[in-house]
């Protein structure tokens, strides 16, 4: 069952909208009526949407060899978040009229959580303190900042980026008949949410994989051990979203489709390179009241 | 065996009509052609697993491992000789067929046992030895006879590694390591099926795994009751044929394994004793 959770409830204050008095931490908005505050204005906006799915990191815990009754046990060593991120940032010059000489609205988020994973299992209650196994983090209020245009420093720009923090590494090797087998790396959406593609890795004992395996730069929102929503906290979620904002700024996402940049090929696989982001995005504009 | 035989009156193998007698001074003189052969098999039964029914979750995961069939890995030692003798014997010829005895061990290397062993069940581990070696003596025929001494030590499997990718100085290369002999990982259950490159494997992808023959296959989970004397005899006769046809892989300490130069992780079958003949086995 999908659930929607707002993380805060700040009023919007875009041009032409009501600008009821409000206080945002670190900001002192100026209220007023339409006067001669005609600009030109520098208007900055940013948004972020994160589709996520939690995936497991398995390890074999026991092996009993036998000619009649073999068995093997596994444990969930940890779970991590795979994310598909879409971010936008724009800085525009405007000659619209506004009632105030400047305006800042921080960015807030809303969580659309799902109780079930792709295999139909649930792990407890979801909400503001637990993202659950699947869902989407949406921007409830975009970041909005308006001030007077400064010709010496301001340049119009528009950035948007789509990427993941993971992808699926290809592999190269020879089959038993001596033929070369090579598969390229696949983007992070290719095997979205398939639990067998993380660890044990493809070329290791006890692996569940024959195909491509998940590669992830810095495992996001890692929770040790078997997953339950009770392991999550509101602050961990906020830290994760802020971290994703930093990753976006640092252009450390992997591209989707043709935008996935090839990386090195080693004995361990065919890898990709993280080079996607929006350099003007900033998680300091996130608001967690 | 070059020494004269004694006490063979009780030997009565199928298809043979032994002539009794012992070596005696003044008895029938040679020269003699004396032919002998013997066979020893060290065996261990190993499983071919199938793993299925992955049940994935974020809090637990499981699957099922089933024994699809089991088979024997073995090390074979065989010997054949044809000698020239001028000893004296009481008979003009002698034939003694080859007989075997089993020395089964009831537990495998992992401490499991699977029922009673004996003449009807080799069990998971053991040795088959020649109780009575083949012995055949007749007059030396200079037109056709020449002395022969053949011995071999071999397996009917070996261990292979998939070609590996290596990265040296930023350059990725394919490295094909040569096959290694069948004693290297003898009886290790994880090196069979699933293979190292497959999902659900029990070993890393660069591990050596069983290639070659699977002897004395029994389908399903193993129990000694699944064995029969006839199946055992068929197995031993089959090994005898492979000995004769040089259809085995050498082992370290013997002739050694012979990798295929064109594909070094594959081995050639080049070992055996071509004069060995399992028609000399006797199962009565």
What does this structure look like?
The complex is a heterodimer of chains A (289) and B (284). Chain A is mainly beta and 289 residues long. Chain A is elongated, with a radius of gyration of 23 Å. Chain A has one domain (2-285). Chain A has one helix at 234-249, and strands spanning 2-6, 41-64, 71-94, 103-105, 108-114, 134-141, 143-148, 157-164, 166-169, 171-174, 180-183, 213-216, 220-224, 261-266, 269-273. In chain A, a hairpin with a 2-residue loop joins β14 and β15 (269-273). Chain B has 284 residues and is mostly beta strands. Chain B has one domain. In chain B, a hairpin with a 2-residue loop joins β9 and β10. Chain B starts with 31 loop residues before the first strand and ends in a 16-residue tail after the last strand.
Query: What's the helix-strand series of chain A?
Result: EEEEEEEEEEEEEHEE
Percent of residues in helices of chain A comes to: under 10%
Biggest sheet of chain A, open or closed, and with what strands and sense?
Answer: 9 strands, antiparallel
State the total count of DSSP E strands of chain B: 15
Show unreliable segments of chain A. 8-34
Number of domains of chain B: 1
| Biggest beta-sheet profile of chain B | 9 strands, antiparallel
Output the radius of gyration of chain A.
Answer: 23 Å
Q: How many separate helices of chain A?
A: 1
For the CA atoms, what is the radius of gyration of chain B?
24 Å
Largest interface, by Cβ-Cβ below 8 angstroms: which chains and how many residues each?
Answer: A-B, 50 and 50 residues
């Amino acid at each position: 069952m999908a659930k929607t959770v707002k993380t805060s409830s700040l009023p919007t204050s875009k041009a032409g909208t009501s600008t009821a008095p409000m206080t945002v931490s670190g900001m002192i908005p100026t209220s007023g009526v339409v006067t001669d505050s005609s600009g030109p204005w520098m208007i900055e906006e940013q948004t972020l949407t994160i589709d996520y799915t939690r995936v497991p990191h398995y390890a074999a815990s026991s092996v009993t060899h036998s000619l009649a009754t073999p068995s093997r046990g596994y444990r969930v060593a940890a779970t991590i978040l795979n994310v598909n991120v879409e971010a936008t940032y724009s800085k525009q010059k405007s000659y619209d009229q506004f009632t105030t000489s400047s305006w800042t609205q921080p960015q807030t988020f809303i969580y659309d959580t799902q109780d079930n994973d792709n295999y139909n299992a649930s792990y407890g209650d979801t909400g503001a303190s637990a993202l659950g196994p699947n869902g989407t983090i949406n921007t409830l209020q975009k970041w909005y900042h308006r001030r007077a245009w400064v010709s010496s420093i301001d340049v119009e720009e528009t950035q948007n980026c789509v990427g993941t923090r993971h992808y699926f590494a290809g592999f190269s090797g020879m089959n038993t008949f001596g033929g070369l087998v090579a598969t390229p790396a696949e983007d992070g959406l290719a095997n979205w949410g398939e639990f067998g593609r993380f660890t044990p890795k493809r070329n290791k004992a006890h692996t569940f994989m024959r195909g491509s395996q998940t590669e992830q730069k810095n495992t996001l929102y890692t929770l040790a051990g078997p997953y339950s929503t009770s392991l999550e906290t509101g602050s961990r979620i906020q830290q994760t979203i802020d971290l994703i904002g930093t990753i976006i700024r640092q252009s450390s996402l992997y591209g989707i489709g043709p935008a996935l940049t090839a990386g090195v090929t080693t004995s361990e696989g065919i890898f990709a390179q993280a080079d996607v982001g929006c350099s003007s995005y900033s998680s300091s504009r996130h608001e967690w009241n | 065996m070059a020494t004269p035989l004694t006490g063979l009156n009780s030997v009565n193998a199928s298809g043979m009509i032994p002539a009794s007698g012992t070596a005696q001074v003044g008895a029938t003189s040679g020269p003699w052609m004396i032919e002998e052969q013997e066979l020893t098999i060290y065996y261990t039964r190993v499983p071919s697993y199938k793993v299925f029914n992955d049940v994935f979750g974020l809090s637990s995961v499981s699957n099922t491992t089933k024994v699809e069939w089991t088979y024997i890995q073995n090390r074979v030692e065989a010997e054949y000789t044809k000698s020239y003798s001028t000893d004296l014997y009481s008979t003009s010829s002698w034939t003694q067929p080859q007989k075997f005895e089993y020395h089964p061990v009831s537990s495998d290397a992992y401490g499991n046992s699977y029922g009673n062993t004996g003449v009807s069940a080799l069990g998971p581990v053991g040795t088959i030895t020649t109780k009575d070696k083949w012995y055949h003596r007749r007059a030396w025929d200079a037109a056709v006879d020449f002395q022969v001494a053949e011995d071999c030590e071999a397996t009917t499997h070996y261990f292979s590694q998939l070609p590996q990718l290596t990265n040296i100085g930023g350059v990725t290369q394919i490295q094909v390591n040569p096959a290694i002999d069948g004693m290297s990982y003898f009886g290790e259950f994880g090196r069979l099926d699933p293979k190292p490159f497959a999902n659900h494997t029990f070993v890393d992808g660069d591990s050596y795994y069983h290639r070659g023959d699977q002897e004395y296959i029994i389908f399903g989970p193993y129990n000694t009751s699944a064995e029969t004397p006839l199946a055992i005899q068929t197995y031993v006769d089959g090994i005898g044929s492979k000995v004769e046809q040089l259809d085995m892989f050498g082992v370290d300490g013997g002739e050694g394994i012979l990798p295929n130069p064109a594909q070094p992780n594959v081995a050639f079958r080049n070992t055996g004793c071509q004069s060995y003949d399992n028609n000399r086995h006797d199962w009565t």
